[in-house]
Predict the structure.
Amino acid sequence: MIAVEVSAKDRILARAREIGFDLVGIASAEPFDAAEGIFQQRARSGLLANWHYPPAVIERTCRPQDVLPGAKSIVCTATSYLTEHEPYDPNAAGLLGFVSSHAWGRDYHRVIGSRLRALAGFIVTEFPGAQCLPCVDTGPMVDRAAAVRAGIGWYGKNANVLTREFGSWVLLGELITTLDLPPDEPLRKNCGRCVECINRCPTGAIGPDGQVDARRCISDLTQLKSPIPRELRPAIGNRLWGCDDCQTVCPVNERKAIAGRSRSSKVFEPLPQIGSAVDLPSVLRMTKSQFRKWFGPTSMAWRGKGVLQRNAAVALGNSRDPAAIEPLIGALEDRKPLVRGHAAWALGRLVCTLAAGASGENCSIAPFERALASLHLLLEREPDGWVREEAELARDAIKDHVGARVFNRALTNVSA
């Protein structure tokens, strides 16, 4: 064990702030027994959806001394990513898509990871013999439990960590170390009777006990590699990536009062090729090189091009904009079944929405006929059973909305 004076702790905290971390606290590296129990229970009950956490992985994640033998302390950090830019309305009509504000700038894994490595370098240089292990998001650490133990913040009812200074608009990062640093005290604070985040969630993913069901959480759904459940797609709105609803409604998270207080806000401003809203048709038809250029520098790239295009298709299906029909028809020829199937659903959703609002003799039915014809052609050539099911459901839904006359004329035009 390496004994360290309080003054050494102060030096480490000061260096962490110089590197760019907004909040820093120290937690002991004792096992997170309570968090492990909750984690295991959530896994057993299916609340983690497709995120694969076997019991052994959960156990290791909650026991820092198993990850770094001899660990004594955890340097916990929080960095605000909030900027002066306002997020796009996730329910607006049109061809633009919402992007969660943590994702529209530089990839936070790289930013926070680089800072943690710099802090680790400082520690091992200043305190010979010390060992450090950086952890950011995907690392072997229950980061929220560590942040709460270190006094960084408290658990919100949406499972996010709320801080006094920046609300939940923070990115967490930890440095497990063999240094024996005096720990900070946890905050004696909670959300009281406030249930704004629970009531605001578009899919009802947040339970009364504060547990989030990843099977319904839109932020998780937009990262899912498999098809988004059909019944949840309308709630996606125009979201291309993530969902901030449970944060924007939180009284602690007043944006304008927070944005100017972080030293890192410039780092996380929207990248020029992304902006605060993304052109959805461009995403739907982007090439591999465009994907790498546009999304490679962001945290959205990690699930791949197909997931983003799947999300763009769903968002266009919810767009209420007839200009989305042609991009969706084009996506029916995508090589990935994930994209073709969601494009088929989106065509059905969009045409039915437009048909329900159409009226008057001057209302053109040509786009509806073209959508129907495109779905019919897809069904003639489609080998994938799930895509066929999506196309059949979309075709039948359109037929119910536009009537047999339009439906039959569309098929006649295809035959001709």
The longest helix spans residues 337-357. The mean pLDDT is 91.
